Amino acid sequence: MKWKETALVAGQEKIAEGIHSLWLQTEQIAEEAVPGQFLALYSQKDSRMLPRPISICETDGASGKVRVVYRVAGAGTEEFSRLQKGDRLDILGPLGNGFPLKKGRKAFLMGGGIGIPPMVQLAKELDCEMQIIAGYRDELFLTEELAACGPLYVATEDGSAGTKGNVMDAVREQGLTADLIYACGPKPMLRAVQAYAKERGIECYISMEERMACGIGACLACVCQSAKVDAHSQVKNKRVCKDGPVFLSTEVEL
Amino acid sequence: MTDTKVTLAGVELKNPVMTASGTFGSGAEYSEFYDLSALGAVVTKGVANVPWPGNPTPRIAETKSGMLNAIGLQNPGLDVFVKRDIPFLKQFDTKIVVNVCGKTIEDYCGVVERLSHEPVDLLEINVSCPNVKEGGIAFGQNPKALESITREVKKYARQPVIMKLSPNVTDITEMARAAEAGGADVLSLINTLTGMKIDIQRRTFALANRTGGLSGPAIKPVAVRMVWQTACAVKLPIIGMGGIASAEDALEFLLAGASAVAVGTANFADPFAAKKVAQGIEQYMKEQKVEDVKELIGAVR
User: Fold this and answer.
1) Which of A40, A254, B143, B151 is most buried per CB count within 10 Å?
2) Hey, which bits of chain B come out as E strands?
3) Whole-angstrom Cα distance, residue B281 to residue B14?
């Protein structure tokens, strides 16, 4: 079930340069959401028609709160970054499929940049031996939340913290192994993770991103290439917003 | 008693509000939010004889008060559409309008002929999509080609035929007259206006297709003007669309001469948009003491 709600802003803070953390009080969404799903956030300006899809970082079903952590990338997210406690925001969610929660496995939870936030709720709920690997450009964020759930390995592009390089460099440097992978991040990172999983025959779930309009699977704007003909589209296309954003790494072409 | 019923080529709609093709799929996704029986009709996304993969991504870009799209008529093809989408829509107390696309006249006629045996109320012929190289707009920018495809399609159609017009022409009335001469039963307008956005950070086109169709409130005044011109030029009923986001917007189109209206891009800004437009029209009628919505159609000349 998806809900359109006017959420109450419970609080917002800047947690790194250009990265904001927003807690929203919802009626149904927090309770319904599973790790890896996302919200559509609507601008209050009529001149910005399209909702912004933003992944869910954390939920607290008991209190009805949901947390999104996002990068200010344009005028829409800049508008959201100015929201303060007590403000209201129209949202739609929870959207997309989310990560399948496996049990008793040895898992990598890999996040790159603004792909890190969804790993927080996944790490909180996953019942596996977890190794959390977070790749940053330079400035770290959400490390406290992640480290609370399991061993955290950090990589930075500039080498200012952890392994110098990306998440795959951290895996190699630390000699980490897994039989299950969850990953979210920029396309080059996902390509590298996809290739790594294929080489070793590891079950791997990746969360994708694409420009969206409706957010619910109707407009066919946010498609990705699928390895086989998709049952819904009847072509080699899957809808990131509805069939994803999480896909088995073998079912999509990056 | 407020009468919101309108008639298009003998097909009675419970209210004048429809969905604009391509913005509503075949209704399944929006039916999770409200009962589609609230609408006069659901207009499906364009369907062709075989599945089409559509264009590469990015397929959309937001613009001020609007958006550009270049989906490229991705569709699952008629076989799956007939088995899956039409039975789905039959569950609702609303009229079914199937938007038909093709690359050649034979493609269009083939789809129309196969739909003649299906429980579909109206056919909308898409000769105005700006985002595909073959077919689509190739038929919609030349009056002779439009008249001839209209005539051919009419030979195979059992249901009334709506010809969907492109605004990317010098004189919309010339196109409207051509469709009328070819035997069209209804006209719908406007499709999107061809536009472009440049990404200044990446120094490239915002859309993979380079150009896309502009829709949303930004195009509404152009659409109202073209509906009014067309209503003055031809006798056919008109379905007006282009930037309708509220009942007030829809009423402008009705007053300009449209017998029905379609809500498109606004569905993305609010999944309840089409239903709210229908409710808002009824509300306006009550407030203004309008007993029959037909009193509003073309009231501004």
Assistant:
1) A40
2) 6-8, 11-13, 17-19, 41-43, 60-63, 66-69, 95-100, 122-126, 161-164, 186-189, 193-196, 198-199, 204-205, 211-215, 238-241, 260-263
3) 12
**B window 249-288, beta carbon within 8 A of A:** 265-272
* Residues B200-226 pLDDT 10s: 999 999 999 999 999 999 999 999 999
Would you call A49 and B74 a contact, using CB atoms and an 8 Å cutoff? no
Is the ipTM above a cut-off of 0.90? yes
pLDDT in tens, A30-86: 999 999 999 999 999 989 999 999 999 999 989 999 999 999 999 999 999 999 999
Asked, as a colleague might, if the bond just before B130 is cis with ω within 30 of 0, I would say no
pLDDT for A78-87, tens place per residue? 999 999 999 9
CATH of domain B6-56+71-193+214-295: 3.20.20.70
The residue written with tokens 């500039």 in the block is: A158
Across A211-234, average pLDDT:
97
Q: Tell me the per-residue pLDDT of B238-284, one tens digit each, with 9 for 90 and over.
A: 999 999 999 999 999 999 999 999 999 999 999 999 999 999 999 99
Residue A13 has a pLDDT of 97
If you average pLDDT over residues B114-120, what whole number do you get? 96
pTM equals 0.96
Q: Reduced to 3 states, what is the DSSP secondary structure of residue B194?
A: strand
Contact in structure between B164 and B125 (CB atoms under 8 Å):
yes
Residue A101 contacts by C-beta under 8 Å, 6 or more apart in sequence? A34, A35, A125, A126, A127
Whether the CB-CB separation of A156 and A138 falls below 8 Å is answered with yes
B74 to A235: CB separation less than 8 angstroms, yes or no: yes
CB contact under 8 A, B74 and A216: no
Q: Which residues lie below 8 Å from residue B259, measured CB to CB, with a gap of 6+?
A: B6, B7, B8, B16, B237, B238, B239, B297
* Chain A residues touching residue B244 (CB < 8 angstroms): none
In angstroms, the CA A231 to CA B26 distance is 15
Q: What is the pLDDT of residues A137-147, one digit of tens each?
A: 999 999 999 99
Distance of CA B220 to the CA centre of its chain: 14
Specify the pLDDT at position B134.
66
Among the partner residues B45, B217, B268, nearest to A213 by beta-carbon distance:
B268
